[in-house]
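Hi all, posting the design record for the shared folder.

TITLE: backbone redesign
STEP: 1 of 1
STRUCTURE INPUT:
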């Protein structure tokens, strides 16, 4: 067996017995760790098992990724998966801090770059699958991620004035509540209920797996020319911000942080923390991606 395959096989066995996180997280972790193994072999290391991973290997990977001009955020994400791997191998000291590895701070988008997707500009006639149609609108009107909008169990989640998202549907296994505040959110919740026969059923049609439905989702959104469906969550966050503060966010041409009064800054911070929680995050800083600063 080639060295690369031996190294990847050692990763595969570890992943098989440690299924932490959502399907999306597990899939991304496998892809990133397999790529790291390939990069190490191509760099000349004859490592046959990840148990032999050392700091020199991690430094090599980071230098290679930087040479390829990958973004700081991408490199940090890769290091996070390496840390997960090393923790499972009881080698938590192998992957140094991002600062020690020479990885700079994340660069957040500026106020002129708005990734929000206007659902009214989408040719929805291209979305022929009713389950996908509902999933898209749940992303827009309730801020769900793609995986959450597919695994969503409408009867179980609907609590009247809010929805409860189970940990197993959410990224990182973080359950959360999202308020149902608009007529559109209520309408699409009711539409989602019409598609399922049983209270415990999700928006994955009977006889299909999650991955099959996700592939269909990706195909249908491509046909509708939706390049970044995550932008639907951006639109939700921006609408929510205006509802909470009374003014547009910076990415929509509203006040920047420097233009806010002391009182307005308090309202701004509280709104951002609320939105961060509703989106499944827990940091105010992450809202800069959605709202600007």
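Okay, here is what came back for every position:
SEQUENCE:
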């Amino acid at each position: 067996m080639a060295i690369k395959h031996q190294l990847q096989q050692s990763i595969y066995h570890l992943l098989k017995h440690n299924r932490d996180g959502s399907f999306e997280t597990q899939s991304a972790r496998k892809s990133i760790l397999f790529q790291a193994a390939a990069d190490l072999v191509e760099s000349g290391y004859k490592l046959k098992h990840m148990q032999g991973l050392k700091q020199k290997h991690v430094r090599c990977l980071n230098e290679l990724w930087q040479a390829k001009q990958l973004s700081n955020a991408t490199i940090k994400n890769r290091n996070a998966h390496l840390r997960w791997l090393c923790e499972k191998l009881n080698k938590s000291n192998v992957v140094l801090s991002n600062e020690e590895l020479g990885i700079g701070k994340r660069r957040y988008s500026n106020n002129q770059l708005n990734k929000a997707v206007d659902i009214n500009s989408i040719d929805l006639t291209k979305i022929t699958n009713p389950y996908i149609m509902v999933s898209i609108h749940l992303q827009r009107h309730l801020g769900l991620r793609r995986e959450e909008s597919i695994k969503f169990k409408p009867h179980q989640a609907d609590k009247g004035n809010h929805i409860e998202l189970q940990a197993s549907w959410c990224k990182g296994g973080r359950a959360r509540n999202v308020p149902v505040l608009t007529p559109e959110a209520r309408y699409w919740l009711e539409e989602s209920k019409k598609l399922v026969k049983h209270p415990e059923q999700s928006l994955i049609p009977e006889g299909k797996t999650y991955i099959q439905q996700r592939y269909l989702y990706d195909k249908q959104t491509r046909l509708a020319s939706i390049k970044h469906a995550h932008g639907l969550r951006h639109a939700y966050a921006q609408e929510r911000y205006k509802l909470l503060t009374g003014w547009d966010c910076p990415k929509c041409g509203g006040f920047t942080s420097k233009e806010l009064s002391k009182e307005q800054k308090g309202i701004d911070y509280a709104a951002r923390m609320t939105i961060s929680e509703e989106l499944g995050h827990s940091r105010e800083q992450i809202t800069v991606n959605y709202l600007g600063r």
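COMMENT: The mean pLDDT is 91.
Let me know if anyone wants the other runs.
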